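hi! just following up on the protien thing from before. the input was this:
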Amino acid sequence: MEELPLRYGMNPHQVPAKIMFNGSAPIKVLNGKPSLINVLDAFNAFQLARELRKSLGLPSAASFKHVNPAGAAVYSPLNDSLRKSYFVEDLDLSPLAVAYARARGTDRVSSFGDCAALSDRVDRSVAQLLKREVSDVVVAPGYDDDALEILKTKKNGNYLIVEIDPSYEPNPIEQRTVFGITIEQGRNNAIVTGEILANVVTTETFIPESAKQDLLLATITLKYTQSNSICFAVNGQTIGIGAGQQSRIHCTRLAANKADNWYLRQHPIALTMKFRKGTSRPERNNAIDQWTCDALSLPEVREWENNFEEIPHRLSHIERREWLKGLQEVSFASDAFIPFRDNLDRASQSGVRYVVQTGHSLRDIEVIRAADEYGMVMSFSGLRLFHH
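and the predicted 3d structure came back as:
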């Protein structure tokens, strides 16, 4: 049995801590010293990136924080607005680097200090992108020599770099200990394929190939998101994830609000903001997110204004809603059935057109009626994907 010592467990006072492997370890720590949360993020994030790669056949990436994805994506070319919104307009990005830029671009504030997971071998382009972002961990199946050299200089040489065997398959029975009691269950080996979209229950039935990709991406993302959870996706990337809420409508509101912020960050005003010299990338991200808010208190406004050379115009509620009308053809996935139509009422305000959910709730007829009212296409997957 191999062991890997950890800096500490869930919190710094939880020591000693270690990982134990039955047989040879499927991971190598190439740089840095992991904590328990680091490895939980790394193992979950890599599973997500690997499954997206297998399912959709494209370079894939995930950005994880506190055992939840802040974003996930596969490769799809970036337009000029997204390149500016993601702060990568000056970089020549490889397909894998584009996937990570998209994953991190879902929610740039939440990705602060993330675990970056890559489906493929990390190249120099990915390393250069990671070096300029605030990130704590990277996990991938391998690293080019020049990429590894760049990453080892990050965080004063303390950046955590994990290499993982992409062919590793764990025991089909998993265990965990809670309150000193060991629990055992079969792993969640459900394979998410296009079959989950076959049972269309709405009047509208056509799902274009692009939306099928987005629905599968959103559903696979939920497989590794703490439940309850909702995911919005478009053009091969998540744009809003609502995770770990006790009420599904709160998941939907959270995901929808994040999707709105993602789209508002592409507004011409957001793309041309002039910041004060010395304003860091995280400070710019926070300032843009504050700009997307409907309202700030007077002290918040004064603090926010200090970030700029020229204070940008704040959108009125009407201007904000007018811009958000451009957010369309969005895909929506739920990790369990939708219990009330209010989820679709809120989703419709953020451009949702395609829906996949488990189905078979007591109010299916009411939810289907709501989908029909909004011209949505909705499939019942019959697959619940709770994750805790």
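The chain has a mean pLDDT of 96.
The longest strand covers residues 68-74.
cheers
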